[in-house]
Design a protein that fits this description.
The chain has 31 helices and 25 strands. The protein has 808 residues and is an alpha/beta fold. The strands form 5 sheets. An 8-stranded parallel beta sheet has the order 1-10-7-6-5-4-3-2. It has an 8-stranded parallel beta sheet with strand order 19-18-17-16-15-14-13-20, covered by helices on one side. The longest helix has 25 residues. It is globular, with a radius of gyration of 28 Å.
Length: 808
């Protein structure tokens, strides 16, 4: 069989296979049983499904290893051997007629700070699975149906540590974002930064719903794209079986649109079978690949929930410089003590002033950067969506911070000193982290543009020789002090222009050094900024608290035609007054993102919950108690309204899962302090009680755990039975606890039927007054009505509203 990379690089479209769960159910897979363990025990049905897809025209067969990580299989299973055996089975079916894609699904666990798993542990879990797949004969490592950007990145890193096979990753989206708040474009940007060989999206309601996701990727898509839609949404038929209504011909007609948009590969996901792939192949085989042409090739910094492009005609980006110990005694003292309050305050202040990226530097005496920097990074990415610039001269600290970051940060910086590129360049390439290329080599500062450009080109050649893509480089134009080197500013302008126009690279600048030793520094800095922007500067590191810099940036963006109809400028400066005549209006950060300056919180306790300030909440609650506040009034009048506001932000898509979890955990911390006082006062008694469980055969409990957390925050007493819980145990718990509400979760179509079993058993046991709410990715209103549930929810916030309604 030829290398799969030849398929990636030819000019034709190609076809993956379809879904497996429904087909295996039809061929003996018991409801609730793991398809992977079923395949290991009974390989013939799996082998036949592979062969059926091959006969239907599939050129790539995906393996029966989607849930093959040790976290999914359990400690008793041999994850390596299962993955090896299932890949060998697909290889046997494929022979020399098809390629084998090793399916690597989500583990069901979040990594820090959303969960307890470290990113390194997640990578190790995937490495064990991928080793088995490689030894079983896989041609491609394919991460499938991932909903968290950090986990998607872990698949790529694990695969690259194990083998040299091509790596693809597919993310699934709920509307405009993934479960943890990543937009399709930001997913594409991150995977392309990491050098993924194939990017993909799968699942959703059907091909028509996925078309919008694909369209939103096209702006910067340069990697081959694979799309696999569901055959519609699952429904329950009269016999209690899960069915998908979208037939093969309609599926093929709608999926053909993916090839028109620029996809190179298409296949099917849940509910599709060989007939769907046959119809798609018959309709589209032989088509030429409509290779997409990206609108821009900016280098993009990403977090879980945001993307910030540098260069490529985009507005210039202000990188907030304030999280830096230089001259900040309070910050130094806190970092030395392992505290983060001042750093978080500086982060919040800069974000409110409109900084779209934050530089993070913890270098100070008696501070272990290898511990402090990654620790602060974890906290920042858990609190804010703003991408970060990791700033350290300690390579080990940079490496640890990269292990803690869920997207593509900017690394500041790599100089031309011997060994620096060799040490940091491959590390940045491995993690998909753009880096600042600093044109300094040795002790002599390059004053002229020619000297700087020579160093830059030498460093770029070295990077490429090490396999580090030059597209990740962001060149520092190098601002030297004009008080001692008057010609240095012009050299900087020439360097920026050369890098922008000749090399096609984004640029940056540490702005304030230009004016050192001179009066009216803000005046010089802002004037020089305007000149640099005219030369093509893509970003600059500065204090977003400087109104004059923000004004210069906003005005320059209008004059450079990067602020359409001067919309941002008008919004920020409609009521502007000259210096001395009043402060500019909110949003004066211009292209930096807008937002008012930091103002005192009307209610710091309320604000701490809304912002998820876990580190502050205990002290704030204790301060209120010391002032004589009644515990119940704190809960009812201030804490609960705060979490309600968080829920509203979540529903409006202003917040996503990370912020929801952070705020919920902040409230739980407050409750722990107040609980003894509430019980003493008699409050908190007679809480409505709910039994929660993931049904038998299903080991996915992320969604259920978040619902439990939110229910507790809203005054429910939650009895959490965990995952893979038989109906008998759920009913027994409902009776023993006197619960009037039961919540059931299922992620897989193969375990949805267990929900109906539980509802029937409740009625048989005479518990007719117990209300049942259900949830999960595959659950619909029609399904809930069909099995007799009293309601269904799509997320934790709607689950709380449903629970309150059912209890009333």
């Amino acid at each position: 069989m030829p290398d799969f990379r030849k398929l990636l690089n030819d000019d034709k479209v190609h076809f993956f296979d379809g879904g497996y769960g429904t087909l295996l159910q039809q061929r003996g897979l018991p409801a609730g049983m793991s398809p992977e363990l079923f395949g290991l025990k009974t390989p013939d049905p799996v082998l036949q499904v592979h062969r059926d897809y091959l006969a239907a025209g599939a050129e790539i067969l995906t393996t029966n290893t989607f849930g093959g990580s040790r976290l999914k299989l359990g400690l008793d299973a041999d994850a390596y051997e299962l993955n090896r055996a299932m890949c060998a089975l697909a290889r046997k079916a494929a022979g020399d007629n098809a390629f084998v894609a090793a399916s690597i699904g989500p583990t069901g666990h979040f990594c820090e700070p959303l969960g307890e798993l470290t990113f390194r542990e997640l990578v190790e879990v995937f490495k064990q699975q991928i080793k088995g797949c490689v030894d079983g004969g896989a041609d491609l490592i394919l991460g499938e149906t991932h909903f968290d950007l950090a986990e998607a990145r872990a698949v790529v890193i694990a695969a690259r540590e194990v083998c040299d096979l091509p790596v693809g990753v597919s993310m699934t989206f709920e509307g405009a974002n993934s479960l943890t708040g990543t937009a399709p474009l930001h997913f594409i940007d991150t995977m392309q930064n990491m050098g993924a060989d194939l990017v993909a999206t799968n699942c959703s309601a059907g091909p028509e719903q996925l078309a919008g996701v694909v369209e939103s990727m096209l702006r910067r898509l340069s990697t081959p794209l694979y799309v696999a839609a569901n055959a519609g949404l699952p429904e329950l038929d009269a016999d209690g079986k899960t069915v998908f209504r979208l037939g093969p011909d309609v599926f093929a007609e709608q999926s053909a649109r993916f090839f028109e948009l620029g996809a190179k590969f298409a296949g099917g996901c849940c509910g599709t079978g060989p007939d769907h792939i046959r119809a798609l192949h018959s309709r589209c085989a032989g088509r030429a690949w409509n290779r997409p042409e990206p609108e821009d090739r900016a280098v993009v910094l990403t977090s879980r929930g945001a993307g910030v492009p540098l260069g490529g005609g985009h507005p210039a980006v202000l990188i907030g410089e304030r999280i830096n110990p230089t001259g900040k005694q309070q910050l130094i003292a806190e970092l030395q003590q392992g505290l983060q309050d001042e750093a978080l305050r500086l982060a919040s202040e800069q974000i409110e002033l409109g900084a779209p990226v934050l530089d993070v530097n913890v270098g100070a005496a008696m501070v272990d950067e290898t511990v402090t920097l990654p620790g602060l990074v974890k906290t920042l990415v858990g609190r804010f969506t703003t991408p970060l610039c990791i700033d350290s001269s300690n390579p080990a600290a940079v490496a640890e911070a990269l292990w803690s970051y869920p997207g593509s940060p900017l690394v500041n910086s790599i100089s031309g000193d011997p060994g620096r590129m060799a040490e940091l360049g491959p590390l940045c390439a491995r993690f998909g982290a753009p880096f600042i290329l600093l044109p300094i080599k040795g002790r002599k500062l390059p004053v002229t543009a020619a000297e700087r450009i020579a160093i830059i080109e030498e460093m770029l050649d070295e990077a490429e020789s090490l396999g580090v893509p030059r597209r990740l480089a962001v060149v520092d134009g190098l601002a030297l002090t004009v008080s001692s080197k008057p010609e240095a500013a012009r050299a900087t302008l020439e360097t920026i222009r050369y890098c922008t126009e000749k090399l096609g690279l984004a640029t940056t600048l540490g702005l304030s050094n230009i004016s050192f030793g001179l009066p009216a520094r803000e005046l010089l800095n802002s004037t020089f900024l305007g000149m640099c922007l005219c030369s093509g500067l893509a970003s600059f590191i500065a204090n977003p608290g400087s109104a004059r810099l923000r004004e210069a940036l906003a005005a320059s963006e209008v004059l450079l035609n990067r602020d359409p109809q001067a919309g941002r400028f008008i919004a920020g400066y409609a009521e502007w007054k000259p210096a001395g005549g009043g402060a500019p209006a909110a949003g004066s950060a211009g292209s930096a993102g807008g937002g008012a300056g930091s103002v005192p919180d009307a209610d710091p306790l309320h604000a701490a919950v809304v912002r998820g300030e876990l580190n502050r909440i205990t002290a704030l609650v204790q301060a209120e108690l010391d002032k004589g506040a009644e515990p119940f009034s704190l809960v009812d009048g201030r804490l609960i309204p705060a979490i309600m506001e968080v829920g509203e932000k979540y529903e409006r898509k202003e917040y996503f899962l990370p912020q929801l979890i952070q705020s919920a955990e902040t409230l739980q911390t407050a409750f722990k302090l107040l609980k003894p006082l509430l019980e003493k006062d008699g409050a908190g008694k007679d809480k409505p009680r709910v039994v929660m469980a993931t049904v038998e055969g299903d080991i996915h409990d992320i969604g259920k755990n978040i619902v439990c957390l939110m229910l507790r925050n809203h005054g429910f007493e939650v009895v959490d039975l965990g995952k893979d819980v038989p109906a008998e145990r759920i009913v027994e718990a409902a009776r023993a606890e006197g619960a009037k509400l039961v919540g059931l979760s299922a992620l897989m179509t193969t375990t949805m039927v267990r929900m109906e079993d539980t509802i029937k058993l409740l009625k048989e046991q005479g518990l007719d007054d117990v209300r049942v709410m259900i949830g999960g990715a595959v659950v619909t209103e029609a399904f809930a009505e069909a099995i007799g549930a009293h309601g269904f929810s799509t997320d934790a916030v709607s689950a709380v509203k449903l629970a309150k309604r059912l209890m009333n």
